[in-house]
Specification:
- The structure is a single chain.
- With 742 residues, the chain is mostly helical.
- It has four domains: 242 residues, Serine Threonine Protein Phosphatase 5, Tetratricopeptide repeat, CATH 1.25.40; 102 residues, Serine Threonine Protein Phosphatase 5, Tetratricopeptide repeat; 122 residues, Alpha Horseshoe (Serine Threonine Protein Phosphatase 5, Tetratricopeptide repeat); 100 residues.
- The chain has 34 helices and two strands.
- It has a two-stranded antiparallel sheet.
- Helix 3 packs antiparallel against helix 6.
- The longest helix has 36 residues.
- It is elongated and about 100 Å long.
- The two termini are 60 Å apart.
């Protein structure tokens, strides 16, 4: 058998040489060290690729095991390094890697021992260095090495027991204990059957200890309440560890039998059963070090679809079925590896759908993508990443995937009243982008309920903001033509500029006419500044208004036009913008001209900040000075951009700049607290306070977007909460936020 495989490898090498068009006689049959390792790395990366039948996976594993066995003496360190890198990125392919190692271990017991020791050293290192994903991946591989007869059952059970001991530490924070519980639970679906059959009593004791931990006054903490995407409603949400534990309990009741995990080693059972096994060395988990280790924060998982939502020809696993966990883990792994390559990611996800022809994998994919996109405190990737992958999947599977996406959007729409504001805003951003790629075709009649609710109701606000975003990607008249007449009240006004000095009776109209003629006549900035200074009959506020209205009117054709005018007349603008009052007047003129165009206000205000015409704190005052507009998305988009700009200009660790950043962040919170407190004093509790929902929800979003920065003023936040007497909701928000960031 060994000789036959070596002959096959020789033929492969010769074929590769012929493909390059180089005479084989001039080159050695064996490639050099670098080429051999490059080939091994390629094979290792694609070892468990499920695109194709099971035989192709088994063939790749067997071929690689023979190739590695031939070159093992001179490549051991490189092979082990590559193996650790691969498993850290592809933990769901642990069965393929374990099978490969099992076949090599049959032929080279010494390498098997070196491999086991290397993996255990890497596991200990990852725990010391807070490499939590790596630690979980290594545990998955070690579990599958038991299945391939490389590691003894007893030593693996001892490792799990040592990790469970951390869960019982009295002085450790819950996040540390939760992570170690997760580290033990994650590999159990892989190895549970083996432990159940061979070490039943000891294994059941391990499960009981985990059960005691999960039932012992364990809670996600006050801070985790901020992670809920839905505050009420019918949408179930589960803390990650609780859900996995419930799935493990169901698997235990089913005698640890599951059908969705990849187990390529079963095809090599006769060969692997002849191997000598290794004992895992004792691992002592690192002690708790609060000063330099941050354990993973909790996260919540939700499922959009019920079992009845999938087609009758496909089966959607129940949410407490371990199959659901396995499928979602595969999807997340593909997303993590290829989220920046939308076509590759979509192709791999499509192949995964094909590999599970009897399951509703498309529904699971949509759930995972939207679940991550709406996740709090923030999604792992940009909203456009998820949207682009969904669009590619719709193109690859046009007969099924678009219907699942539409089904998900409809479900989300029905739950808008209970949705967290940050998640709702991401829903707006994603769905507007999605519609723009499909000619804005949608069954708007299905959402007509939004036309009969109060103006600030979540469904009405969602549709209004959605239409604004669609108009950014298209144009007003096009969107209007697509909507039923019943949506008239929700359709934004035409986003045209308003130049009020067309009215010659207004104070400043004469100056406006002079400026228009001067600028169109190519006058210099000095000359334009002279016209403004010479208008002594006008107060400074009117002069600023005239100047900005004129600039914006002349530049209204495009961003390029207005930015060009700003560039030319920047000295004039700086001359007048020498204090806070004047800078506010500049921003007021902006909001007057572009009253019906949120995007222009957003972009131009950011530009004024970047060219140092207005100060960041002035923009904050301007934003919170518009109470009636604080429910609009664009003001909070601008606030986030201003924070980002200010933060980027405080990166050199200068104490003065850091202090300025803290003062700026504190100003944001205090400004919001002030406007919320004033609102609550005048609001009559006769109806839903939607205004407070929007403002507090978006404040929470800002706090989440800059957690590390707001942590710098946590003491001030605690002081603000202690001084608030009448705003219970705001106090609760700050207290929960401080509990979360600890």
């Amino acid at each position: 058998m060994n000789q036959r495989r070596r002959i096959r490898e020789d033929k492969l090498d010769e074929a590769e040489i012929r493909e390059r068009g180089i005479p084989a006689a001039k080159h050695p049959r064996r490639t050099d060290r670098m080429e051999v390792m490059s080939r091994i790395e390629d094979l290792l990366v694609n070892l468990g690729d499920y695109r194709g039948d099971r035989d192709s996976v088994q063939g790749r594993i067997e071929d690689l095991s023979y190739l590695v066995s031939d070159v093992l003496p001179s490549h051991k360190p490189d092979i082990l390094r590559t193996l650790v890198e691969c498993i850290s990125r592809q933990s769901m392919q642990s069965g393929a890697y374990a099978t490969f190692l099992g076949l090599v271990n049959v032929r080279d017991y010494e390498f098997g021992a070196q491999c086991v020791n290397c993996l255990m050293q890497q596991l200990l290192k990852s725990l010391h260095e807070a490499q939590w994903v790596m630690a979980r991946s290594l545990m998955m591989l070690l579990a599958d090495l038991v299945n391939t007869s490389v590691v003894t059952v007893a030593s693996m059970l001892q490792l799990l027991t040592d990790l469970v001991n951390v869960c019982e530490e009295e002085n450790s924070p819950q996040r540390r204990r939760d992570f170690y519980a997760y580290l033990v639970l994650s590999p159990l679906p892989l190895i549970g059957r083996e432990l159940y059959e061979k070490r039943e009593m000891a294994f059941q004791m391990l499960i009981k200890r985990l059960q005691l931990y999960m039932n012992k006054d364990r809670c996600a903490g006050e801070g985790a309440t901020l992670l809920r995407i839905w505050y009420n409603g019918e949408m179930p949400q589960h803390e990650y560890l609780v859900l996995l534990w419930q799935q493990i309990l169901r698997l235990d009741r089913d005698h640890w039998i599951e059908k969705q995990l990849l187990r390529p080693y079963l095809a090599f059972d006769d060969t692997l059963s002849t191997a000598l096994q290794h004992h895992l060395p004792i691992l002592e988990p690192p002690g708790y070090q609060p000063e330099n280790v941050s354990y993973p924060r909790p996260w919540l998982i939700f499922h959009l679809f019920e079992l009845s939502d999938s087609p009758s020809t496909l089966r959607l696993p129940e949410e407490l079925d371990i199959e659901r966990h396995v499928i979602e883990s595969h999807i997340l792994e593909i997303l993590q590896l290829h989220h920046l390559e939308r076509k590759t990611c979509a192709e791999l996800l499509s192949s995964y759908i094909v590999s599970k022809p009897d399951l509703a994998v498309e529904h699971c994919i949509v759930e995972v993508l939207l679940g991550q996109m709406l996740q709090l405190p923030s999604p792992p990737y940009l909203t456009i990443n998820y949207g682009s992958i969904i669009i590619e999947l719709c193109k690859l599977r046009p007969n099924s995937f678009p219907q699942v996406v539409a089904q998900a959007a409809d479900i989300l729409f029905t739950q808008l009243e209970f949705m967290n504001v940050s998640s709702l805003d991401r829903f707006v951003n994603w769905f507007s982008h999605h519609l723009s790629n499909f000619r804005y075709q949608w069954c708007w009649q299905d959402w007509e309920s939004c036309t009969t609710v109060p103006d600030l109701h979540p469904s009405a606000m969602f549709v209004r903001e959605l239409l604004k975003k669609c108009m950014r990607l298209s144009y007003h008249q096009h969107i209007v033509q697509l909507l039923p007449q019943s949506y008239a009240a929700l359709i934004p006004l035409p986003p045209d500029p308003i130049f009020k000095y067309i009215n010659e009776l207004l104070p400043g109209a004469k100056l406006a006419k002079q400026l228009l003629e001067a600028i169109r006549g190519k006058s210099s900035a000095l000359a334009v500044g002279g016209f403004i200074e010479a208008s002594t009959e006008l107060d400074e506020n009117i002069k600023i208004n005239v100047m900005m209205q004129t600039f914006l009117h002349l530049g209204s054709k495009s961003f390029t036009h207005v930015f060009s005018i700003f560039s030319k007349f920047q000295p004039v603008m700086k001359m007048l913008a020498y204090n806070k009052v004047n800078q506010l007047a500049i921003l007021e003129a902006l909001s007057e001209v572009w009253l019906n165009n949120d995007q222009l206000q957003l972009v131009v205000a950011e530009k004024l900040l970047k060219i140092r015409i207005v100060d960041a704190n002035v923009i904050v005052d301007w934003i919170f000075g518009q109470k009636h507009k604080l429910t609009h998305m664009y003001l909070w988009e601008l606030l986030n951009l201003v924070i980002k700009f200010t933060k980027n200009h405080s990166q050199d660790n200068d104490e003065e700049q850091l202090s300025n950043l803290c003062c700026f962040l504190l100003n944001i919170v205090q400004s919001c607290v002030k406007v919320v407190a004033e609102h609550e004093q005048t609001f009559e509790q006769k109806e839903m306070d939607y205004w407070s929902d929007w403002v507090l929800g978006r404040l929470q979003g800002v706090l989440f977007n800059y957690i590390d920065d707001f942590r710098l003023i946590s003491f001030k936040l605690r002081q603000i909460a202690s001084e608030l007497d009448n705003s219970k909701r705001l106090v609760k928000l700050i207290e929960n936020y401080l509990a979360y960031i600890q």
